[in-house]
Amino acid sequence: MPSLRIVVAEDDAAIRELLVHHLAREGFRCTETIDGPSTLRAVRAGTDLVILDVGLPVVDGFDVVRTLRREGRALPVVMVTARSDEVDRVIGLELGADDYVTKPFSPREVIARVRALARRGGLTADAAPVLLRFDRLEVDEAAREVRVDGADIGLKPREFALLLQLASNPGVAFSRTALLQAVWGFDFDGDERTVDVHVRRLRAKLEDEAQLPRLVYTIHGFGYKFARG
Fold first, then answer.
1. Could you give the CA distance from residue 91 to residue 81 in angstroms, rounded to a whole number?
2. Helix axes 193-203, 157-167, angle to 10 degrees
3. Does residue 125 belong to any structural domain of this protein?
């Protein structure tokens, strides 16, 4: 199956090249654009997902996503901005963006968000579902199972989705908000503490019941990350 096609719309050459380098290394096919009109042309020519800088020249990112949604194009959009104002983030999401990343960011975090959106949207970036192995632990996306020594430990759906998100990106620190967006979706109106509750349940099943070493680490005041492989 072909790899995921991504339009990377960013007028800062250094940031654009960094993103494309890391995305291409992960097997994604990238088209680079540097302003709003070229981004709209690239999307209309065919793509699966857009990484969209808010501050594009000529036509900014807000107007690009507004135009795409008005045209009925439902492809996932990750907006990228140097602005930290919550109002900008809300505007982008209300216009139809699916995720929002603030500069400076880790390319690995962007890739993790792209993969999460691809899974939620029924897109596939790889030829096969994820099968992750960490010593005695296996996370099998196709079977929706987490196995220790070959036996399924019976995670609930949200627990499984949370572990898959973290384990697919070892060493990447996710904020609680990012995990809520990736696992529960933007329409979830609950509290960030929901993530903490599910992490505690995960740890109980992995560490207390299955006797595995610590795999999910707390980043105090921020969120969580999975141990590096």
1. 12
2. 90
3. no
